[in-house]
Amino acid sequence: MSMAAARSVPAGRTVKLSLDRDEIIKRGLMVVIALYLLVSLAAPLYVMLSKSFSTYGFNLAGFEFQVGDESGNWSAPQTAAALNESTGAVAADKLASRSDGRLAATSFFPDFNFRSPIHYRIRGTSDEASWLVGQTLHRGTEWMELDSNSFRRVMLRPDRTVGIENYKNYFSTPSLVRSIQNSFTIAIISTVITVGAAFGFAYALNRSKMRFKGFFRLVALVPILVPSLLPGIALIYLFGNQGLLKDLLMGTSIYGPLGIVIGSVFFTFPHALIIISTALAISDQRHYEAAKSLRASKWRTFWTVTIPGARYGLISAAFVVFTLVITDFGLPKVIGGQYNVLAVDIYKQVIGQQNFEMGAVVSVVLLIPALAAFIVDRLVQKKQVSLLSARSVPYEPKPSPRFDFLCLMWCSVVAVFILGIIAICQLAAMVKFWPYDMTPSLRNFAFHRMDGGGWTAYRNSIQLGLLTAVIGTAIVFIGAYVVEKIEGFRTGRALFQFLAMLPMAVPGMVLGLAYIFFFNDPANPLNPIYGTMAILVLCTITHFYTVGHLTALTALKQIDKEFEPVAASLKQPFYKLFGRVTVPICLPAILDISIYLFVNAMTTVSAVVFLYSTSTALASVAVLNMDDAGDVAPAAAMGMMIFYTNIAARLVHMYLSRALTSRTQAWRVR
């Protein structure tokens, strides 16, 4: 056929591959988990955002009243606005309200007497006007007649309008705006110190021949096992008003920015270390040999080879630490004193003042830097290129007595800092009355005598951890599996990936407040789970979803894509391949996801502090409540119970990993 003839052939229809049963099931599973993320994350955030733009006020023109005399004659209808104009009962600046605001109808009748035989009528001038008689809500334009005794229970309800008034009020309040500056100041200082300290620690582990590396690695991960409130309690015992070492501060108070920074360095250190250590561990020996052959000094080699090679790890660690510090609630609450930060402002607005709309505004303000840091971090990671190739030679440090000694000293200083924080809390939990009676005692572990939930709170935390680990691991791994193994469907997979990555950018306080707005609405069919263990599990899984998702994806990408075609050619359904091949191969990652979810469920405070009830109090929240009540030593004891539990969970995880890996991963051993 000639070229001209070929060009004249009309184009046919685009061939589309029909979906087989396995693909339909996979896409169905992806849709189900995507709906889970929409309900547990996207929808609550949307409701919270809309709440931040909601303002409430009493529209007095929306209500009309009539007064009947003893003979049954009724006065001409008058609006509440007209009555207020004549009586001046409610000032104009008092008409602004909150969503749960109430205004007594009797305010407009100065001579009201509930024993009077006079009757009253009330109605709305529009269908939107609403009022309460006792706890019963009424609305509409029909007259409602009430005797005097019933009329005294009438409360007008405010109208909702949409606007930016809440944001105007927020940014016109100096104390609230100052919290933004305080949060950024603390986050930046803590980030610089933490990243610097973690880089030195990681450099010592990867570039020296010092001894006890295994010990130092274990010690560096200890802060992950405790709630962020615990370093605050330890610092109070060390440098507080009755602290052992308070004279070392020379009059400077530990309550405020100093305490927040020190505590932030403690609990963010392992996060920065893991990232930076990974970046330093993949260096190419040939780069250093080339620098040596060019007679470059060690200092110049450090700045031209080491730092550029680890720059993406350093940037990523900086953004992670910044986000953790600026969104943390527990530590500033315990040791912040009068130094307000954004996360604590949310708590004060919601719990202290019941101002949910302003709490939503602060949440949006807090969400912006966290989301920006997350986006920049993701963009930086996309630019990262592989530093190792097939020809690369892994870096092997050489003995250097002086350098190895300096590395050992630095790691020892950091280890003393970390273990010292834990040791102080342990000591405080085991004595009668710090610092006056240091007799050993277990009285601080009698949680049933303290406010905060007692031993029931501890058991609830274990239940939350187990449910989160089991249910969360299943949801996360199946979600990662279907999005990785589905053929085509790029748009759907991209949307799913966006939803899966979004939780990492949402602070726990913001998510918890969003859950109040969304699940506490009686019109929501999921309202029955509010105040139960179910909502705590849902919130915790969602809050920590992203890290588990990325872990599962990393493991799944290591599996050869030829398994699926081979299974299809043998007419084997995908779920058999999933159960017999995929799960055994990915078992180490599955166990890692489960222990990650369990530990975070035990230590989380910010995500659940708004959601627990008297029957679902948690150990981490009990630490906060006992500290608020002045029971600092019992709070330290409960924090140590969380620590013990997480150590035990880690040991169980280690045993299961070895036992199951020996059965399912024998092919890895050469």
Automatic annotation (TrEMBL):
InterPro entries: AminoethylPonate_ABC_perm-1, MetI-like, MetI-like_sf. It is found in: Cell membrane. It is a multi-pass membrane protein. It comes from the Bacteria. The keyword Lyase does not apply. The keyword Transmembrane helix applies. Signal peptide: none annotated. Residues 180-377, 458-653 form the ABC transmembrane type-1 domain. The chain crosses the membrane at residues 28-49, 184-206, 218-240, 260-282, 302-326, 358-376, 405-429, 462-483, 495-518, 530-556, 605-624, 636-656. Its main location: membrane. Keywords: Membrane, Transmembrane, Transmembrane helix, Transport. Belongs to the binding-protein-dependent transport system permease family. NCBIfam families: PhnU2. This is Iron(III) transport system permease protein. It comes from Aquamicrobium terrae. The lineage of its organism: Bacteria, Pseudomonadati, Pseudomonadota, Alphaproteobacteria, Hyphomicrobiales.
